Amino acid sequence: PCPVAALVALSFSGAIGLTFLMLGCALEYYGVYWPLFVLIFYFICPIPHFIAKRVSDDSDAASSACRELAYFFTTGIVVSAFGFPIILARVEAIKWGACGLVLAGNAVIFLTILGFFLVFGRGDDFSWEQW
Predict the structure, then answer these.
(1) What string of DSSP letters covers the chain?
(2) What's the average pLDDT block by block, 10 residues per block, for the chain (131 residues)?
(3) What is the dihedral of CA 59, 44, 18, 127, to 10 degrees?
(4) Segments forming the whole domain that contains residue 21
(5) In whole angstroms, what is the distance from residue 119 CA to residue 79 CA?
């Protein structure tokens, strides 16, 4: 597949996800910006993968344990990102409609992050490590 087309598609889907997040915050009916704290989860989500990639070597058994720990932490971050707007809606800090928009944005953004690692994380000639 063409890496430029993949990059354009990932950029477009990231923009759609951020649009859902912004709509959940900025629409006049909702008007509360607490869901923007989900951006923190977006930024810290790939960090365990980067650390495990840097620390581990694919030839030893410890690398598998390190990779599994990175998967565990990443899963915790993703689940927390989905739980945060639900908790905000449950305590009535935001409305349930805003929660739905933020959850839709979360799904799109995390699928975009996954797509980025699937497309550019193979370690071939065109990978994110060269950027």
Answers:
(1) --HHHHHHHHHHHHHHHHHHHHHHHHSTTT---GGGGHHHHHHHTTHHHHHHHHH--TTSHHHHHHHHHHHHHHHHHHHHHHHHHHHHHHTTSS-HHHHHHHHHHHHHHHHHHHHHHHHH-S-SSS-GGG-
(2) 84 96 91 93 93 73 78 96 96 94 96 90 56 49
(3) -30
(4) 3-108
(5) 23
DSSP 125: S
Position 127 in a domain: no
The answer to whether 12 touches 118, Cβ cutoff 8 Å, is no
DSSP at 128: G
d(CA 122, CA 131) in angstroms, rounded, equals 14
The pLDDT of residue 31 is: 85
The structural domain count of the chain equals 1
User: What is the sign, positive or negative, of the torsion defined by CA atoms of 51, 53, 55, 56?
Assistant: positive
Is 120 part of a structural domain of the chain?
Answer: no
What secondary structure letter does DSSP report for 43?
A: H
